[in-house]
Prior knowledge:
mainly alpha; disordered N terminus
Amino acid sequence: MKTAGADNAGSSGYYGLLGLVVLVVWIGMISSQSFWTDEITTAHLASQPTWTGFVRELEQTGSEMLMPLFSVYAWLWVRIWGISELSLRLMNLPWAFLAVASGISLFRLYRLRPEAILLFLAPFLASFANEARPYLMTLACALLALVCLEALL
């Protein structure tokens, strides 16, 4: 159900500005601090030099098999950007942009106040930007799926 609220040309720029604030905060959260246990698994899988080695290791992990798209994405990312802790955390950036853009689309669609985008600054969401895990990918894909569902209805 769409709610009443401001959605005019002036609020478009405001949405964009607030979205930029969210992205700057999320990017500022990215660090090269030491990995924790699950991130080490991501790094181990992504560091496999061959596709065959990657698949062999992926089959052995158990929980990583539940999210193979992320593991493949991490492996491909490392082929392009390298295997440092910072590089693995930076792989969240495309998903951060997609999450914020999809969120803005939904908030505009439902005519929510532009300030609603600041919900993305909730500490647990902002901390996801600093983890080499699929959290932002999941958020971005879920929001994009909602945008697509709304377009079909």
